[in-house]
Design goal:
Distance between the termini: 74 Å
Strand content: 15-25%
Shape: elongated
Number of strands: 4
Mean pLDDT: 78
Length: 113
């Protein structure tokens, strides 16, 4: 077997490298439950190992099901390719900032001009 054939065989059997730039910018948890049980504050952006989605930790807004068992934290998901809400990273960051301002410990002060 010559060198060219050996390289071709390696390239065919090698697993393609899959890299998602936006997932490298956020913390990746094993599961959504692990993220919600962590000490991460409201407005934290995260993802899970098997998901192609980004999530933001927020408070449940309405409905008996979302507040069942005294639940005070839920994950809002952003799916790539969906129209509403946009899953572009800038849109997710904007939602996270609004959530931090609304539910976080520190309130945002209005800009003084």
């Amino acid at each position: 077997m010559d060198l060219a054939t050996a390289i071709k065989n390696l390239m065919e059997t090698a697993k393609p490298a899959v890299s998602k730039a936006r997932k490298s910018k956020v913390k990746v948890y094993d599961t959504i439950e692990a993220a919600l049980n962590s000490s991460a504050p409201y407005g934290t952006i995260f993802s899970t190992k098997g998901a192609d989605r980004l999530y933001v930790i927020t408070k449940p807004t309405w409905g008996h099901k979302s507040r069942k068992g005294g639940n005070t934290r839920v994950a809002k998901g952003f799916t790539p390719g969906s129209a509403t809400p946009s899953a572009k990273f800038g849109s997710v960051v904007g939602y996270a900032k609004r959530t931090k301002r609304k539910h976080g410990k520190q309130k945002h002060e209005k800009k003084k001009y």
